[in-house]
C-alpha cells in the first residue's frame, strides 16, 4: 500500500487522537495547520494549541496563519505537494483554492451522524435533543458548512450518564480510527466512494450560549438532566441556591413528583422536584468552591428537605 502525504488541519483536543493515529500510521504528515497561539490561564500567556504541541513532539512543520486567504500562506501549503488534507475542528475557513490543492481531496472529521447536526456544537445539541445515538462522519470538505458527501460513519449510543465530555472523548477516538481506515483505502484506490447528504434531513447545531445554562425547574427532570450533561464541561448548568449561583455538573432523572425546585431528600444525592419527575443531583459547586460529590457537599452545607433551588432564567 502506498503512503499518502497528508496536511493535517486541526486545533483543539478533539483533533489530537486523529493526528496521533495518522503519525502512527504508514502515512506521512508533511504539514500541520493550526490556529495561532492564544492567551490562556490567569497570566494570559500565549498557549499553543493541543495539535501544535503534538506536531512539535514529532518534528512536523507547523503553520499558524490568522487566515488562509494570504497568497504567501497558500504558496507554502501548495509547496508541500500533499496528496490529501484532513480537517478536524480546525476553526478557520478554508478557501476553495486551498481545498483544491491536494491531489486526492480534502476530508473532515465531524462529530455527528450527518446530515443531522451540522455546525458548531453537534455533541451538545445531540444530548440536549435527547438523541439515542450520535457518531462520527468522515466527509468531503466543500465550501458550504458541513455539507460534503459522506465516506465513512461510526455510531456511538448515548447513555443516561453521558456528558458532552464523555461523548467528545469517545467520538474523538472513533474519528481517528475511521480517518486512518479511510486514508488506507484512499491510498490503495486513489478515490473514496461518497454518499451525498439528504438536504431534507439537515439540522443545525448552533454554538452554545452561556444564557442557555440557566435551569428552569418547571422543565421535566429528563430535560434538565440532558441540559446538565450537555453543558458539562462548558458552560455548566446553573441554578440559584440561597441567592448564590450553584453550578450543577452531574444529574440524572428519576420517577416521582414534587414541587419544582424543592429539595425532596439529601444524602448520596440531592433529589429535587421538577415540572415532571425528580432530578437526582450527584455533583455540584458553589461560588469559590470546588466541584463536590453530593455527600461531600452536604458535609459543608446545611441543605435539608423542603429547601428550594430557584430557576435561573435568561434576562429579557
TrEMBL record:
<dbReference type="GO" id="GO:0005829">
    <property type="term" value="C:cytosol"/>
</dbReference>
<dbReference type="GO" id="GO:0004479">
    <property type="term" value="F:methionyl-tRNA formyltransferase activity"/>
</dbReference>
<dbReference type="InterPro" id="IPR002376">
    <property type="entry name" value="Formyl_transf_N"/>
</dbReference>
<feature type="binding site">
    <location>
        <begin position="112"/>
        <end position="115"/>
    </location>
    <ligand>
        <name>(6S)-5,6,7,8-tetrahydrofolate</name>
    </ligand>
</feature>
<protein>
    <recommendedName>
        <fullName>Methionyl-tRNA formyltransferase</fullName>
        <ecNumber>2.1.2.9</ecNumber>
    </recommendedName>
</protein>
<comment type="function">
    <text>Attaches a formyl group to the free amino group of methionyl-tRNA(fMet). The formyl group appears to play a dual role in the initiator identity of N-formylmethionyl-tRNA by promoting its recognition by IF2 and preventing the misappropriation of this tRNA by the elongation apparatus.</text>
</comment>
<keyword id="KW-0648">Protein biosynthesis</keyword>
<dbReference type="Pfam" id="PF00551">
    <property type="entry name" value="Formyl_trans_N"/>
</dbReference>
<dbReference type="Pfam" id="PF02911">
    <property type="entry name" value="Formyl_trans_C"/>
</dbReference>
<dbReference type="InterPro" id="IPR005794">
    <property type="entry name" value="Fmt"/>
</dbReference>
<feature type="domain" description="Formyl transferase C-terminal">
    <location>
        <begin position="207"/>
        <end position="301"/>
    </location>
</feature>
<feature type="domain" description="Formyl transferase N-terminal">
    <location>
        <begin position="5"/>
        <end position="182"/>
    </location>
</feature>
<keyword id="KW-0808">Transferase</keyword>
<comment type="similarity">
    <text>Belongs to the Fmt family.</text>
</comment>
<dbReference type="InterPro" id="IPR011034">
    <property type="entry name" value="Formyl_transferase-like_C_sf"/>
</dbReference>
<dbReference type="InterPro" id="IPR041711">
    <property type="entry name" value="Met-tRNA-FMT_N"/>
</dbReference>
<dbReference type="InterPro" id="IPR005793">
    <property type="entry name" value="Formyl_trans_C"/>
</dbReference>
<dbReference type="InterPro" id="IPR036477">
    <property type="entry name" value="Formyl_transf_N_sf"/>
</dbReference>
<dbReference type="InterPro" id="IPR044135">
    <property type="entry name" value="Met-tRNA-FMT_C"/>
</dbReference>
<dbReference type="InterPro" id="IPR037022">
    <property type="entry name" value="Formyl_trans_C_sf"/>
</dbReference>
Amino acid at each position: 500500500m502506498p503512503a499518502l502525504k497528508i496536511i493535517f488541519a486541526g486545533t483543539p483536543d478533539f483533533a489530537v487522537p486523529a493526528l496521533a493515529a495518522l503519525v502512527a500510521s504508514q502515512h506521512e504528515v508533511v504539514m500541520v495547520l493550526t490556529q495561532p497561539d492564544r492567551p490562556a490561564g490567569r497570566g494570559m500567556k500565549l498557549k499553543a494549541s493541543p495539535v501544535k504541541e503534538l506536531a512539535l513532539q514529532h518534528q512536523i512543520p507547523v503553520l499558524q496563519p490568522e487566515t488562509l486567504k494570504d497568497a504567501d500562506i497558500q504558496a507554502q501549503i501548495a509547496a508541500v505537494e500533499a496528496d490529501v488534507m484532513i480537517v478536524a475542528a480546525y476553526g478557520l475557513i478554508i478557501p476553495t483554492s486551498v481545498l483544491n490543492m491536494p491531489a486526492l481531496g480534502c476530508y473532515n472529521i465531524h462529530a455527528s451522524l450527518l446530515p443531522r447536526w451540522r455546525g458548531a456544537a453537534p455533541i451538545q445539541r445531540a444530548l440536549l435533543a435527547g438523541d439515542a445515538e450520535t457518531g462520527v462522519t468522515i466527509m468531503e470538505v466543500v465550501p458550504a458548512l458541513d455539507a460534503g458527501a459522506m465516506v465513512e460513519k461510526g455510531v456511538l449510543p448515548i447513555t443516561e450518564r453521558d456528558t458532552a465530555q464523555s461523548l467528545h472523548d469517545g467520538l474523538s477516538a472513533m474519528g481517528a480510527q475511521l480517518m486512518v481506515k479511510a486514508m488506507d483505502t484512499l491510498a490503495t484506490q486513489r478515490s473514496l466512494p461518497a454518499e451525498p447528504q439528504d438536504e431534507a434531513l439537515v439540522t443545525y447545531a448552533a454554538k452554545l450560549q452561556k444564557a442557555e445554562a440557566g435551569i428552569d425547574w418547571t422543565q421535566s427532570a429528563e430535560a434538565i438532566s440532558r441540559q446538565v450533561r450537555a453543558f458539562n464541561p462548558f458552560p455548566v448548568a446553573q441554578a440559584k441556591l440561597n441567592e448564590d449561583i450553584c453550578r450543577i455538573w452531574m444529574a440524572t432523572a428519576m420517577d416521582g413528583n414534587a414541587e419544582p425546585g424543592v429539595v425532596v431528600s439529601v444524602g448520596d444525592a440531592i433529589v429535587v422536584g421538577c415540572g415532571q419527575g425528580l432530578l437526582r443531583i450527584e455533583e455540584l459547586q458553589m461560588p469559590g468552591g470546588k466541584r463536590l460529590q453530593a455527600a461531600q457537599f452536604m458535609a459543608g452545607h446545611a441543605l435539608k428537605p423542603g429547601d428550594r433551588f430557584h430557576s435561573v432564567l435568561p434576562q429579557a
